[in-house]
Specification:
Oligomer: single chain
Structural class: alpha+beta
Distance between the termini: 78 Å
């Protein structure tokens, strides 16, 4: 199949003149500059994203920062700051940070959604965790109108402030 201007399919697609199309690729002609403004950093400098582990119930847990304090256990009263968003579009529906007031509850007592009872247990004071809560561990078929639609999966950023 002939190519315009006598070039190769690669050169034609790139819009290169025929004189360059028959030349083998030479990386020295196109040096990569990682120190140029806006250039991507070398792979060794890219921050690592903490892994998300999935529990048997389907809850996703991502430890962003492991705290140094006491571990939260069922039966304790815990105090947290949190930010809740819909997993579908990232829209925020609640935040204790915006109210400037921590939220406290009895862990494992069913005072909060099941995803929180399961996801906050084991956190250490000062720790930060992201919970990916499926609808069945959140508000299920009923949702929490008007902010949380039925069958919505939720994402919570949680920081454990203290236990009692």
């Amino acid at each position: 199949m002939p190519f315009p201007y006598g070039g190769s399919p690669y050169a034609t697609a790139a819009g290169l003149p025929a004189a360059l199309s028959n030349q083998p690729y030479n990386p020295a002609l196109f040096p990569r500059r990682f120190d140029a403004p806006g250039a991507a950093p070398p792979v060794s400098q890219v921050p690592q994203v903490p892994p998300i582990r999935k529990t048997p119930s389907g809850l996703g847990i991502q430890d962003v920062a492991v705290g140094q304090g006491e571990e939260a256990r069922p039966g304790q009263r815990v105090s947290v700051h949190y930010r809740g968003t819909l997993l579908s579009d990232g829209s925020e529906f609640d935040s204790s940070l915006k109210r400037h007031e921590p939220f406290s509850f009895n862990l494992g007592a069913g005072e909060v959604i099941q995803g929180w009872d399961e996801g906050v247990a084991g956190m250490r004071i000062g720790g930060k965790r992201v919970l990916y809560v499926p609808a069945g561990l959140a508000y299920g078929k009923r949702g929490a109108p008007p902010d949380i639609p039925p069958n919505a999966a939720l994402r919570f950023e949680v920081q454990l402030l203290g236990t009692q």
